[in-house]
Design brief:
191 residues, mainly alpha
């Protein structure tokens, strides 16, 4: 074998090795982005699951309260409206805003129990309050997990060299499930 042919084979082999390594790197990056994107989607589904659990508890709570305070129509209507907005929320931003409205309406509903001692002592009401408190904790936990998954994914698609693959394969930044700006405000209760 002459030196020229051997040199061409060596250079060709090196080029093939570099291409194979680049292909393996690209496949690894792509697979990692797909896995993280699916993790965000799964975490969001779990957030929606616990939000739905809370929304499903509300009709039972409303029926229990109506037995003692049927004239509090405004609160029942605002609760139904907030529940409907949450059910129709399509994005994390819409869900966060609807969740804040539902939390506020629930706070007003639970606050009227202070005026009805028999309601506060009702076993069904107490049980529903406990279930709501447990569900609120689940919402906080799942929201934290979702936001962690979004943070990891968003960080990955912004890093070099993944940023090129993310753009090439259509991966986009995902929204956080952030509390609405007025979520820190205590619900307003009118009697």
């Amino acid at each position: 074998m002459n030196k020229g042919l051997a040199g061409c084979l060596i250079v060709g082999g090196i080029i093939l090795l570099v291409l194979a390594a680049g292909g393996m790197l690209a496949a690894g990056l792509y697979n990692r982005l797909v896995a993280q994107d699916e993790q965000v989607t799964g975490a969001w589904a779990q957030v929606q699951n616990v939000l739905q659990r809370r929304a499903d508890l509300i009709p039972n709570l409303v029926e229990t309260v109506k037995g003692y305070a049927s004239h509090e129509k405004e609160i029942f209507e605002s609760l139904a409206e907030a529940r409907g907005r949450l059910a129709g929320a399509a994005s994390p931003r819409e869900a966060a805003a609807a969740n804040a409205g539902l939390t506020s309406a629930l706070g007003r509903l639970l606050a009227i129990a202070e005026n009805y001692p028999n309601l506060k002592a009702n076993e069904n009401f107490v049980r529903l309050q406990d279930e709501l408190a447990g569900t609120e904790n689940r919402i906080a936990t799942e929201r934290m997990r979702y936001n962690d998954a979004v943070r990891l994914f968003n960080t990955s698609i912004k890093r070099y060299p993944a940023v090129f693959f993310a753009r090439m394969f259509g991966f986009h930044e995902r929204e956080y499930f952030e509390a609405a700006p007025d979520a820190q405000k205590a619900p307003e209760v009118k009697f």
